[in-house]
Amino acid sequence: MLIRRKSDLTEADVTDPAWYARRREFLQGTAALLLAAGGLRPAQAGHGGRALQYRPRPDLAAKDALTDFSDVTTYNNFYEFGTDKASPAELAGRLTTDPWSVTIDGEVARPGTYALEDILKPHGLEERIYRLRCVERWSMVIPWIGFPLADLIRRFEPTSRAKYVEFTTLYRPEEMPGQRRAVLDWPYVEGLRMDEAMHPLTLLAVGLYGEVLPNQNGAPLRLVVPWKYGFKSIKSIVRIRFTEQMPQTTWHKAAPHEYGFYANVNPAVDHPRWSQKRERRIGEFRKRKTLPFNGYAEQVAHLYAGMDLRRFF
Ligand SMILES: Nc1nc2c(c(=O)[nH]1)N[C@H]1C(S)=C(S)[C@@H](COP(=O)(O)O)O[C@H]1N2
Ligand SMILES: [Mo]
């Protein structure tokens, strides 16, 4: 990826004018933060998307080779657009992601429904290269662009009763054809314990490969929790609710003995129908060993000290 100096940048390099008009404040805020931080990396709009400005975080970069952009954006799980891997890329283009708002409610001091721009405005964007490992035994390495969920949580001030965070995906069957069938109990819901949500690795992503998230990857706002199976990384979020009780998550409801609330990547605990010891990195032939917590054990294992991870899978 090229690094260009600020003086070489024009507005047109950064984003197209229509998008700029809608997201102007957000971009200006981001640019200011980036300049203050002393680093500016304008993305190359090499994939036809709308480029984002962000700060690279080499300290948060998986060393493995990146998965090809074409695989990242055509091999997807997004059941709102169908259950096969190709459907989201084919059908998600029709999803309207602007305007977009996010409701923040439950055990929180500043509940409300906020325009996405207002949610994003105070947050500078960073690039973090994370592995994502699906429960189906494939994995990818993706350069995500986003900001720590913890920063958003601090801003909205959960009360002392907030023990969990629940996330909900958009329900819009007119644009999400998969929702016209009862494959899952729509809308898609996921959740984290508060300490998992506050962990510095937990990312709210708005882009990948230097550009605004393609719809099939969960535009305009999705979660990325790199030490958990992919299904925890919920897409196209419209609601963030703070709760005292553990949220009922969609996959747990659908098959409670197969999908637990925690869903930590764990080669020692098999899925009831298959081993979780190995995985196929998309783009590779030889299988890789699956690592505890997807390789992030050093950073996150302490969250589960004393817990029986067979029981709390
Ligand atoms: N709303 C929603 N979010 C979702 C899913 C889904 O079906 N609906 N699938 C999950 C699963 S199983 C995986 S593996 C990841 C895939 O993310 P990707 O397509 O960006 O690689 O998204 C997760 N988030
Ligand atoms: Mo998955």
Helix/strand layout:
Elements: H1 11-14, H2 17-37, E1 41-42, E2 53-61, H3 69-72, H4 87-91, E3 101-106, E4 112-115, H5 116-120, E5 126-133, E6 138-148, H6 149-156, E7 164-169, E8 189-193, H7 194-197, E9 203-208, E10 211-212, E11 222-224, E12 237-243, H8 250-254, E13 278-281, E14 288-289, H9 297-300
Parallel strand pairs: 2-5, 3-12, 6-13
Antiparallel strand pairs: 1-2, 3-4, 5-6, 6-9, 7-8, 7-12, 9-10, 9-11, 13-14
This protein binds ligand MTE and molybdenum atom (MO).
The ligand Nc1nc2c(c(=O)[nH]1)N[C@H]1C(S)=C(S)[C@@H](COP(=O)(O)O)O[C@H]1N2 binds near residues 80 and 235.
Write a compact overview of the structure shown.
The chain contains 9 helices and 14 strands. It has 313 residues and is α+β, with helices and mostly antiparallel strands.
Commentary on this structure:
The chain has helices at residues 11-14, 17-37, 69-72, 87-91, 116-120, 149-156, 194-197, 250-254, 297-300; strands at residues 41-42, 53-61, 101-106, 112-115, 126-133, 138-148, 164-169, 189-193, 203-208, 211-212, 222-224, 237-243, 278-281, 288-289. The protein is of the alpha+beta class and 313 residues long. It has a single domain (11-304), classed as Oxidoreductase, molybdopterin-binding domain (Sulfite Oxidase, Chain A, domain 2). Strands 1, 2, 5, 6, 9, 10, 11, 13 and 14 form a 9-stranded mixed sheet that branches. A 5-stranded mixed sheet has the order 4-3-12-7-8. It is globular. Residues 1-40 have low confidence and may be disordered. The structure holds ligand MTE and molybdenum atom.
